[in-house]
Amino acid sequence: MKLKKIGVLTSGGDAPGMNACIRAVVRCGVKHKLEVIGIRRGYAGLLEGDLVRLDARAVANIIQRGGTILETARCEEMKTAEGLKKAVAILQQEGIEGLITIGGGGTFRGALALAGVGGIKIIGIPGTIDNDVYGIDYAIGFDTAINTALSAIDKIRDTAGSLQRPFFIEVMGRDRGFIALDVGIAGGAEDILIPETETKIEELCLDIKRSFERGKKCSIIVVAEGDEAGGVFPVAQQVWERLRLDYRVCVLGHIQRGGSPTARDRILASKLGAAAIDALANGKTGYMVGELKGKITFTPLRETWEKRKELDNNLLQLVKVLAT
Ligand code: F6P
Prior knowledge:
Blueprint: E1 5-10, H1 18-31, E2 35-39, H2 42-47, E3 51-54, H3 81-93, E4 98-103, H4 105-114, E5 121-126, H5 142-162, E6 166-171, H6 178-186, E7 191-193, H7 201-213, E8 219-224, H8 232-243, E9 248-251, H9 263-281, E10 287-292, E11 295-300, H10 301-306, H11 313-322
Parallel strand pairs: 1-2, 1-4, 4-5, 5-10, 6-8, 6-9, 7-8
Antiparallel strand pairs: 2-3, 10-11
């Protein structure tokens, strides 16, 4: 049966490029003669019936904007049987037969719980700066986030070198080190500390000490927020106790989530929005649409969080080699 009305929502942490994705969903939906309903504040808004009709003009001038015009939320109620029942009832009452959910693992859990119940068709689109979703190379927002962090690190490097100080810079990523690894490589870090590898403070101290002995003027240490050391401050403190070197700490924080999306994120968001609409129109449900090695792929929703996305081990090995 041909779909007539679909919903789109963004959920969890916002990511730059989500707006470009909403725009693509709406405009490709229009092409397929679908009525597109925006659901505000993710699953929380769905449970309150906070809906808005989106036509092609409603998504004008948003491709360049960070955040999400639909706003977002983290919703505990959606994890309960009652919440789920309520969500299905609202979708049915509104005649919404298909749903596109843009977000990360948490978003897809909610999506899978809804898929198939009452005949609702669901397609997920990966949008998270953490890039920790299995089955894709890049999630929407990751490229912008790493470039934002990188531009901050480049600036820090200027002052770090001038005063010959080690800098400990904390980046986001929740419990994974994807942001830290890419930013560490691109920012010429001395070392990166990530949850995926054991943090050895003695080794780190030796690296920093030797780098200054080799005539380097600064040491940039990128620390993932989820590193086992418990964040950047304990790491810096432990290094100071051993080396007694004047140092500074910088937590990049939420600036990594904001800002105008890069071209790469806008293009990815546009492609995935279009592919999600095509998939729904062709009756597909229960999948995340993504891009892997340049090709559009469909990963069963459950695999997106149950299977572990691995870091690029070669890149990891390169950090130390390049820091010599
Ligand atoms: O998942 C995106 C993310 O920015 C993580 O990197 C970070 O740990 C978390 O969200 C921060 O969440 P909040 O904005 O709720 O503090």
